[in-house]
Amino acid sequence: MCVKEFFKLKGIIFDFNGTMYFDAKENESAWRRFIFEKIGRQISDEEFKTRIHGRPNSSALTYFLEKEFSIEEAAALSEQKEIIYRAMCQQNSDRFHLVEGLPKLLNDLTARNIPIAIATAAGKSNLDFYMKHFKLDRWFDYSRIIYDDGTFPGKPNPAIYLKAAAALSLDPKDCLVVEDSLSGIESAQRAKIGKIIGISPQNDNSHLQTIPRLQKIINDFTEFDLSLLR
User: What confidence tens digit (pLDDT) does each residue in 198-225 have?
Assistant: First the structure.
């Protein structure tokens, strides 16, 4: 009997930014620089929580630049910001790694044939960047990574988690999601995901404490164990 048959939940879907890679510092710094250079405007902490983290770049661009953009225009502007972001990631080499405990967990899940996917607001250029530097192809292929390609509404719309569950050939209620952002958690809730685990670096999870339907909050993946699938 396959080990996964002992579990009530059959698959795991991971958000990426702020979940598999703690990059809030780099992402916020890149957005601050990009928006200030464009319109001389500062971004508030509240705006990062409600307008940027977990959401597709096109949504943030429309909000800050106060204009609707075509898919092509949004992609071009987004890439300007992401060039800044990727350079910052590589400059901060001490932080440029997967979250502690995650490689071991992914190895274990793969060995047990437990289906896994990624549902990320990142675009293709950043996804390629992560695939290269973090060697994500050890655990994932592109068929099980749902990213922002401009063809579906971003978080908090449930579409991304519905697509991720479908990529695993699972019902959303049979999936566990790991998320860090308010919009991502709302997206998973609206998709009727079976269990949602919040993740945030130690001493930085106050935004998760009052969210209903979070079964657990972890600081990193050393605190994640397979009993969460039961």
Answer: 999 876 777 788 787 798 999 999 999 9
Torsion over CA: 34, 36, 38, 44 (sign) = positive
Domain parsing of the chain, residue ranges: 3-22+97-229, 24-91
Place of tokens 């996917």: 117
Query: Which pLDDT belongs to residue 6?
Result: 56
Q: Which CATH architecture has domain 3-22+97-229?
A: 3-Layer(aba) Sandwich (3.40)
Composition of the chain by helix, strand, coil, percent to 5: 50, 10, 40
User: Burial of 150 by CB count in 10 Å (0-12 exposed, 13-18 middle, 19+ buried)?
Assistant: middle
**Which residue, among 22, 181, 1, has the nearest Cα to 102 in the 3D structure?**
22
Positions of the chain with pLDDT lower than 50, given as ranges: 1-5
Q: Give the angle subtended at the CA of 183 by the CAs of 207 and 61, to the nearest 5°.
A: 115
Give pLDDT, residue 211.
81
pLDDT digits over 170-187, tens only?
999 999 999 999 999 999
For the segment(s) 24-91, the CATH number from 1.20.58.340, 1.10.579.10, 1.10.150.240, 3.90.1150.10 is: 1.10.150.240
Question: Residue holding tokens 């002992």?
Answer: 6
